[in-house]
Amino acid sequence: MHKRVLAFREFNDRHTADNIYILIERILIEYNLIDKVFAVGFDNASNNTAAIPRLRELCGASTLMGRFFHQRCACHILNLCVQDGLAALGNALEVVKGGIKLIWANTPLKMQWRQYLKDRRVNYCAFPKDLSIRWNSTYNLIQVLVRYKDHFPAFLRQTCNYIINPADIDTCEKIVNVLAYFNNATLTFSHVYKPTANEFFVEVVNLAGAFCEFSDAAYVSYFCDFMKQKFLKYYSHISHIYGIAFVLDPRYKLPYLPNCIDYYYASFFPTQEFDDNPIDPKQEFNEVSNLFHQLYNEFHAQYGNAPPPMQRTSSSSKGKSLLKSAFGSLLKKSRATPATEQSSGNELSLYVTLNVDYEVGDDFDVLKWWKENERTFPILSKMAKQVLAMPISTVAVEQEFSAAGNVLTDFRTRLSPSSLETLVCFHDWLKAQRRTQEITITPSRHFMEETTEGGESD
């Protein structure tokens, strides 16, 4: 996969849906990309959402795929979930942070802390900075704190008479395990050089498992409840396009999807509540399956002159070990169930029954697999090329605002908008040649808010 910044425009007009549309239209025309756009990723500002219908019409999205033209930023939603959870902790987290700030602000005290650990033969690790605009910095901070849970409160009590309740430390230790799932999901969704849409179901199933695991834990259930409420605000129903992307990952395919859907919805809506819940897991799977076949037929109509599929035996790779997670357990369960395919299409039948013996791991290149199997699956490979490239995060875009801040400094304030755009784009394109665009998660300030300048969130 490739990533390029094509524009970094000055936008002084009001952030209305019409103005947003006009700006994007102008850029697409400049680069001759109007008929090449598969999906658009936005945050949750209502004016961004309001611009989508005109963009969909402009880009000529098909009736079928036009339903999934607009993709919300998954990292933005996860961030909102974590922020709600952290806010629910109240003083427990603030008291602990206050003790850490004492060490940050006092160099002699910091030296005493190092000596205190040295005397007890404990390795020293500096506390990372806790930035108000980055929830993952709080996660990193708590990770270090947990290492010193037996020493940190005692040190502050002896040197500063600063009292930290042991229950507050226990709470931090519990929530760091929950936040680890959200951190892993955020990192996965923020990848630049490999698809992320096919990993969406993997991560949300793991998050559902985390909510179940910690829902009854002392000190943490209240924290999880707030995160769960926000999570279900956006993901009480999973978009079917993520199911299609999951199916187009040859490690999983269609037979593995029912168990994932059942587990996900059962985690949030127990079986006895299905009567009151409008979402039926079996119906969800059938809709994804039907949509997958409809999309295949649409691509087949467009590329119907492709040569017939070549027969292929199973492929395998050592890969990484199966992740110890909710999804890992479901994958093992699904592999124990024989795959069946009732479709009359030879290519679909061959794909679903093909044994691809890869494990869940970062070393599997799904686009490379489709490229290598293009002659075997001529239609499906074209589907995969478009669906798997779909963005599910705008973190890469947010990163460019940080990069622009390094260009437009206090000592370089007279750059024209066009010069700034040139420098930002040129810098990104150079990094693209070196393949060094991978994201370091540093969301901009609006990433911490549920609303943006464009208007109220949906």
TrEMBL record:
Chief location bin: nucleus
Entry superkingdom: Eukaryota
Occurrences of domain hAT-like transposase RNase-H fold (ranges): 194-299
HAT C-terminal dimerisation domain ranges (all copies): 360-430
Subcellular location: Nucleus
Record bears the keyword Zinc: yes
Transmembrane helix recorded as keyword: no
A Pfam family recorded for this sequence: Dimer_Tnp_hAT
InterPro entries in the record: hAT-like_transposase_RNase-H, HATC_C_dom, RNaseH-like_sf, ZnF_BED_domain_contain
GO CC annotation terms, alphabetical: nucleus
GO molecular function: DNA binding; protein dimerization activity; zinc ion binding
Key words of the record: DNA-binding, Metal-binding, Nucleus, Zinc, Zinc-finger
The protein, known as: HAT C-terminal dimerisation domain-containing protein
